[in-house]
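name: query_chain
kind: protein
chains: 1
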Amino acid sequence: MEIRLFDGNIKTTDAERNYVVSKIGAAASRLKDAECVLDVRLTDINGPKGGVDKQCSVVLTPPGLRTLRIEEQAADYYAAIDAAAATLKQSLTKALERTKTNGPR
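structure:
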């Protein structure tokens, strides 16, 4: 599994980059041996205006499953990353359980 981070015009620090890799990677750990790409995008929706506008978007296409798209917003990037990781883990677990029950699509 490969994790790609897109931060656009936001300059992420090495600590933020490592945080994304560790949190999102842990959330998708069930696919660590699978050939898939996890795209993570950090954006500041309102720019310098402030507010709850930091967004973390995750797109994952696991082999044999439908594409998972997750977007979470928070007051800072770390909270948005945490929320996106929690939602990713829950969605991935649900998708894999559905596959076990119904077989691959």
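note: The radius of gyration is 14 Å.
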